[in-house]
Amino acid sequence: MSSLYISRSLEPVLKKAASEFPAVVLTGPRQSGKTTLLQHLFGSRYRYVSLEPPDVRAAATEDPRGFLELYPSPVIFDEVQYVPDLFPYIKEKIDAERARKGQYLLTGSQHLLLTEKVAESLAGRAAMLRLFPLSRREAEGRPRLGFVWERKRPSSSWSSHAFAELWRGFLRGGYPELAAQPNRDVSLWHASYIQTYLERDVRSIRQIGDLTQYQGFLRVLAARSAQLVNLSDVARDLGVAVNTIKAWLSVLEATYQVIVLRPYFANVGKRLVKTPKVYFTDVGTLCYLAGLKDPEHAISGPMGGAIMETAVLSEIVRTLTHRGIDPQVYFWRTMAGTEVDFVVETGAGLIPIEVKLSATPRLAMGGAIKTFQGDMKSAAMPGYVVHPGDIRLPLGPGATALPFADL
User: Fold this and answer.
1) Helices and strands of the chain, counted as H and E runs
2) Which of 100, 141, 151, 295 is the most buried (most CB within 10 A)?
3) pTM of the entire predicted model
4) What CATH code would you report for 11-130?
C-alpha cells in the first residue's frame, strides 16, 4: 500500500454515515481505494480483518458467532462478499446494541449480492455507499470542488492541461495505485487488474466456463463503447446466445466495471430511442481493452470520441457518487438522430452536455443542445460543450464551450 494518501470526496459522507448507522457498507470496483479510505479514517480505532484469505473465510463460514466473538466491533470487515452468510449474525450483534453507531464497516466489490444481503439482514441498520476510482478533482487535490453549473462564478482551470498530458491521464485512468505511483507501467497494471478481476470477481459470481471468451466480450464491448449497443449483434460477433451476453453484461454492471447509460424520457410527443449505451467505468480500462498505449493513437484513432466521452461521464458519475448521491445521468436522442451525449438531472433542472474531440470550439457544436432546450422548455438548463482544449467560449445563448479541466 502506498504511503501517499489521496483525499477523497466521500470522507465527510462516510464519517456522517458511521455516526448515524450501526453499520456502513462501502462497495465499488476492486482497487478503487475502499480499504485505504476506511483505514485512513477509522484505522486507529477499528480492527481490520480481510475475509479474502481462504482460512479466514473458512473460519467465518464454519462458526460465524465464534468468529464475531473473536473480532468484536468496532471492526472493518473487508471483501465481505466472500462470506455472505455472515450478515444475519452481524444483524444479531447489531440488534443486541441497536443504539450504538458505527459498529461494523463492511466493504465489497459485488453490488448485487451485497445489496441483496443488506436488504435481507441489515435493512434500516446499514448505510450503503459507493467508492469509484479517483475523479479528476480528487487526483488534483481539490475533492470538494463543485461542477461548473453549481459554482457562483467560473473558476479558472486548476492548471493549463497540455493536450498530450490530458490524454496520457486518460490512458492511465483513475485507479489510486496508478496515481500514487506515477512510474508504474500502465499496460502491465491494467493487464494484471483485468486478470485478477476475471479470476476473483467473475468466477465467483457465476460459472463462466470460458474466461477467454468473456475476455473477448470485454474487448468487443470496448470497441462499441459510447455507441448504442445492440446485444444481438454482440452475441452474433462472439458466437454465443443473447441471454449469455445479457448475463455477462449484468456481471460487469454488478462489479462496477461498466455504466449502462439509458435514454432520457420525457413526454414531448416524440418517440425516443430505447437502446442503451455502455461505457467502461474507468477510461484507463477502456484504453487498455482497446489496445491503446500512447496518446497519439488514442487521440487520432477511431476510439478518440469514445475515450473523451468516457472521461466526462466518469467525472460526473464519480463526483456525484462520492457525495453519497445516486447519479441521474442519461443520454438523449430523437428518432431523427439528434443526440445530446449526457443529460444530468439535478434539483434545478436538466443539464445537457455534449462532448467534442476538437479543441477548437465552433458555434455549430451547440446545435443539439439548442434542440434539446427547445424540446424540454423550462426543464432544460444552460448546456455545455466539453472539449479537450483550454478555451472557454459562449456558443450562442444557453450553451458554453468548456475545457474538460473546468468541468
Assistant:
1) 18, 13
2) 295
3) 0.93
4) 3.40.50.300
